[in-house]
Every structure is written in C-alpha cells, then in structure tokens.
Amino acid sequence: MLSIVIPVFNEEKLIDELIRRTVTAVESFTQDYEIILVDDGSRDGSLAKILKISEKNRKIKLLSLSRNFGHQAAYTAGLEYSKGDIVGMMDGDLQDPPELLAEMYRKITEEDYDIVSGKKTGRKGSKGRNLYAFLFHMIFKHIGDISNLENYGNYSMMKRIAVDALLSMKEKVRYLPGLRSFIGFRHGDIEFVRDDRLKGLPKMTLRKLSILASDAIFSFSRFPVRFCLILGIIGTIIFLGAGIFVIIAKVAGIATPGWSSTLLSIYFLGSIQLVFLGIIGEYIFRNYKESQNRPVYFVRKFYDGSS
Question: 171 pLDDT band (50/70/90 cuts)?
C-alpha cells in the first residue's frame, strides 16, 4: 500500500487541481493507496473542499490539526497517521510535480532503494526566494555535519522501515530533510526543476524560510559554536598583542594620549560578547523546548473515509 502525505494551509484555490493531478499520477501505477491531506489550521475553505472531494473518493483522507503548527509538524502528523508500506511526502502548492511519484515508486520497488528524494536542479518563480534557497544550501553544504543535503527538500518517498526510523526521533525542533539524511539507509534521487506556484501566494514566507534555515543549522551543525570559539581565540590573540604594544609604548614614552582606542576595543568586545550570547541562547532555547516535551501537534479530527 502507498500513502501520500500532503500538508495544506489556506490552499483553497489549489485543492481541486492538487488532488486531481495527485490521484491521476498515483493511479497510473497503483490502485492500493491513500492520500492524507493534513490541514494545518487553514482559515479559508480548504477543509470543506477536501471533505467534499473525499466523499467521492474514500482514499482521500483528511487530518485536521487544531491550529497552525507549521510545515514540519504537519508532515510529522501525516507520517504518524499513514498506513502505507511505502510513504510519499509532497508539498501542497504543486511546486513538487506529482507526476514524479511514479518514478520514485519504481526506484523503491524495482531498484530496492529505501528512500528516494527529489533533487532540485533549478527553480522557477521568485528570484529573491530562489537566491535565498541557493545561499542556504551553499552555506549548509560547507558547515553542516551531514552531507548530501544540497538542493533536497521534503519531496520524497520512503519504505516503512525508513519512516519508522524517522518517527523514532522525537525532537520538537524538526528539520525533516536533515533527519531523513541522518537515518541513513539506501538513498536514491530524482532530478527535477521546481515549478512556481500555480495559484495564490507562497505560504513559506522569507521569515518562515529563515526560521527553517536556522533550525537546520542549529540542529545539524556545530559551526555556530566553533565560530564563537575561533573568533574568541582570534580576539584574544589580537588584544594580547595590542596589550603588549601598549605596555612597550608606555615604557618607551611614545604612547599617544586619548581614549579612542579604548572605546573602540570596549565596543568591539561588547559586540562579540552579544553575538556569543545570541548563539548560545539559540541552543539553550532549543534545549528548553525539548525539555518541555510538548507534543509537536494536536489533532482536531481525522476523517479517514470510513464514515
């Protein structure tokens, strides 16, 4: 059985086309499937539209969350409610073409991959967002503690053994592409050019993308802490040398009177300390969220097509 998990948030304009294309793509290679649309607290008519379509096709299921918990939480909820031996993850804005699901399924069933991910070779749409994504992947490639994440997103398909391994990690701050890479297994990919949105405005704003990027970096990289250490060592060496120079200048009687250098050094050291505190605070905040042990999401109702 195949499960397809699709988070949606205020996608009323896209629901009909999303389900039509996904069902057509899935039924081209299997009739044993379920499509779980996770309504992540939509405030438009998305929920009503999905329910209306699910009355005609019982394989369309709706998982309604109690509020908007975010993209990664919605995916997690869908994965935990999925029943398939193979489970696909796909965004609900049709930027991930459903037509590639057939090739993903073939690679898993015929080539015995455990995970097949969509690898973006290009992006249509907003140049600003595309530049932001490019910069993030370029930076993360060099500072991340896990490899082979460049240009991979949520679009993927996994065997149940990989899904169970992914769900066994209970951290609250979740970056699923990173977790998917961390668990290992036999991993393949399919290259594609990511489409622009068919209708409506992007739900992943630059602010949300920034939060997701910071979650990825602080969850899968030691670079921020090492950056603090290296910068601290460099600053110590510089000011140690400056201190020696000042002492020699005083003894030699060539010291220039004035407070400029003193003020500059105080401002510099103060700024560095604030940067350090900010980075350490990010780690402390994430540890605090983990220690709270709050659920990643709450379910309002699961419409599984049985009634």
Answer: confident
Task: Quickly state the pLDDT bin for 40 (edges 50, 70, 90).
Answer: confident
Q: What residue ranges do the domains of the chain occupy?
A: 2-221+295-303, 223-292
Q: What residues have CB less than 8 Å from 20, skipping those under 6 apart?
A: none
- Tokens 């249509």 appear where? 124
Neighbour count for residue 285 (Cβ, 10 Å): 12
Q: How many CA atoms lie less than 13 Å away from 238 in the CB half-sphere?
A: 9
Separation between Cα atoms, residue 64 and residue 61, nearest integer Å = 10
What's the length of the chain?
307
- Fold of the domain spanning 2-221+295-303: Spore Coat Polysaccharide Biosynthesis Protein SpsA; Chain A (3.90.550)
Q: Tell me how far apart the alpha carbons of residues 123 and 70 are, in angstroms, rounded to a whole number.
A: 23
SS3 state at 208: helix
The pLDDT of residue 203 is above 60: no
pLDDT per position as a tens digit, 71-90: 888 999 999 999 999 999 99
Q: Look at residue 220 in the predicted model and tell me its pLDDT.
A: 59
Question: Nearest Cα to 185, choosing from 145, 155, 157, 144?
Answer: 157
